[in-house]
Design a protein that fits this description.
about 575 residues, alpha/beta, Immunoglobulin-like, eight-stranded parallel sheet, binds 1-deoxynojirimycin
Length: about 575
């Protein structure tokens, strides 16, 4: 067992623009984060991951950086950042920065120079190509709709952007780019930050020659996916970054790497690799995405057997070899209780059940702001209320293709990133206590019911349940390091597993739906002396775990002695 502080930590993600506004401009800021450090400390988390706060024209809420070593005007100043770091550290909280190494803003001075002429020394900092007979250099499609190529009139060439046209991709084949990035990462480390989430890191290398994508098994939007994702040279660049810079600091790192399974992930996070501590995988996020052209927007119901298969794969393959980053939600995903729970009748029960899962898997749990109070998706009636560049581009593209608006809005209500980006609901007062100005995006109208102030007062709230789960993780090593084993793999409603560490065994029972299934555990797993660590319903008197009717979205975690039998779960 290879113990590390970041394995034992719980991470809380802040999307700064929507966290807390202190100057009345309707956008969250650094002073807002500082003023809630006590709240986070009290919740019990250890690390705060802050989405990009660097100077940015904000086409993609900070993921388009125009100066890596300065702070976005809307968020505050570098002095305020230094204060945030000091105050966090004084409370024993760590700060993880979100770094975008794949691309910059088109307003970054490097790009301004790069596009100024073909022979500018910075030209080769980005990926420029000539068109083919008036067409873009290849057929790759951007994540945010349309071609990845943007034609630049002035110099008569196209530049590549995997995301929006305001986010040109850097050319990592250029040693000067590599050196500049290393220098910048080190600059932040010297300031004392405690880690990085590396945005879109899987994409920093593109296939040699930038050939057309023609993978017929892929959706049109990602037909060329394997030509710009997880290529071998990404590992060379990451191990180089590790050896030259990261290795010298006791930090944590997590990479955003879509499109890989656990075996492939080991090449990033394997104990012997010296690249990253963990990666965010996307397999469970794709369980409700359809297979027709529009990928994530194409809604299909997810099913529990597939979820078990995906999660069990990551749990077993990475055990003792790497480490998982577990999450249900982030600023790019819909709200977890709306997506995987029931945000109406069983909002509280299902949010607690999902939280139980998040905290009792092997891996570091990542809580996304508002998840700890069960915040839900929104469904704005008009596209005018949406702000996300991906959503807006999708809307335009679909309408252009003749898709009825009603159908497009249905998809947006389910999958838009703005679901997770509405302001944090602090109180039941005006604008949920987020701002005294006009919020940059509408507050979810359910804030009188769902807000931090009321959640703190209610001992049965989702908030207090999170607090308890986080505290349990610190009390019981088995929750952090225990080996996962899936039970009842073919059960379509119940997700049951154990986590074992020497003589300690955790038994986790989760009813993932609103029915009342009966749990029939094998006799050897029905322990004599069992200790209930947490549950989301009151439990009265003696019960028989060999024959137990569960309530909707019920979750229970027992601690027991490791059963003497080496029980074997069926395969899925
Ligand atoms: C992934 C980030 O999480 C997302 O918000 C952003 O739009 C893209 N990378 C581009 O940086």
């Amino acid at each position: 067992m290879n113990k590390k502080w970041w394995k034992e930590a719980v991470v809380y993600q802040i999307y700064p623009i929507s966290f807390l506004d202190t100057n009345g401009d309707g956008k969250g800021d650094l002073l807002g984060i500082i003023s809630r450090l006590d709240y986070l400390k009290d919740l019990g988390v250890d690390v705060i991951w802050i989405c990009p706060i660097y100077k940015s024209p904000n086409h993609d809420n900070g993921y388009d950086i125009s100066d890596y070593c300065d702070i976005m005007d809307e968020f505050g100043t570098m002095e305020e950042f230094d204060r945030l770091l000091r105050e966090a550290h004084a409370r024993g909280l760590k700060i993880m920065m979100d770094l975008v190494l794949n691309h910059t803003s088109d307003e970054h001075p490097w790009f301004i120079e790069s596009r100024s002429s073909r022979d500018n020394p910075k030209r080769d900092f980005y990926i420029w190509r000539k068109g083919k007979d008036g067409h873009p250099p290849n057929n790759w499609e951007s994540y945010f709709s349309g071609s990845v190529w943007e034609y630049d009139e002035k110099t008569g060439e196209y530049y590549l952007h995997l995301y929006s046209k305001h986010q040109p991709d850097l050319n990592w084949e250029n040693q000067k780019v590599i050196d500049s990035m290393h220098e910048m990462v080190e600059w932040w480390l010297k300031k004392g930050v405690d880690g990085f989430r590396f945005d879109a890191i899987a994409h920093i290398v593109k296939a040699v020659g930038l050939p057309d994508g023609d993978n017929p098994d892929q959706l049109p939007t990602v037909r060329a996916y394997e030509l710009f994702s997880n290529l071998e040279n990404v590992h060379t660049l990451l191990s180089n970054l590790y050896e030259r810079v990261l290795f010298h600091y006791d930090i944590m790192t997590v990479g955003e790497t879509s499109g890989l399974g656990p075996e492939q992930a080991l090449s990033y996070v394997g104990d012997t690799r010296n690249e990253l501590n963990m990666v965010f995988q996307f397999e469970h996020m794709q369980l409700d995405a359809g297979s027709s052209g529009s990928g994530k927007w194409d809604i299909r119901p997810w099913n529990l057997l597939e979820l078990k298969k995906v999660i069990s794969g990551w749990q077993t393959v990475l055990h003792d070899k790497g480490w998982n980053a577990n999450y249900w939600c982030n600023h790019d995903q819909p709200r977890s209780v709306s997506r995987f729970g029931d945000d109406q009748k069983y909002r509280v029960e299902s949010a607690k059940m999902l939280a139980t899962f998040l905290h009792t898997l092997e891996g570091t749990p990542y809580i996304y702001q508002g998840e700890e109070i069960g915040m839900t998706n929104i469904a704005f009636a008009s596209i005018d209320d949406y702000r996300d560049v991906e959503t807006l581009n999708y809307y335009e593209e679909q309408l252009d293709q003749g898709v009825p608006e009603e159908q497009v809005m249905q998809a947006i209500w389910k999958k838009s990133r703005d679901n997770a980006r509405t302001p944090m609901q602090w109180t039941n007062g005006e604008h949920a206590g987020f701002t005294r100005g006009t919020p940059w995006i509408e507050v979810n109208s359910n804030y009188p019911l769902i807000n931090v102030e009321d959640a703190i007062k209610d001992p049965n709230s989702i908030y207090h349940y999170y607090k308890k789960l986080i505290a349990l993780r610190k009390q019981h090593e088995v929750i952090v390091y225990g080996e996962y084993k899936l039970l009842l793999p073919l059960d379509k409603e119940l997700y049951v597993y154990t986590r074992t560490l020497e003589d300690q065994c955790l038994l986790v029972i989760l009813n993932f739906f609103g029915g009342e299934p009966v749990l029939k555990l094998p006799a050897e797993l029905v322990p004599e002396a069992k200790q209930l660590l947490i549950s989301n319903y009151p439990i009265k008197g003696e019960e028989d775990l060999g024959n137990l009717k569960l309530r909707p979205y019920e979750a229970r975690v027992y601690l027991m002695k490791t059963p003497p039998l080496d029980f074997v779960a069926q395969t899925w």
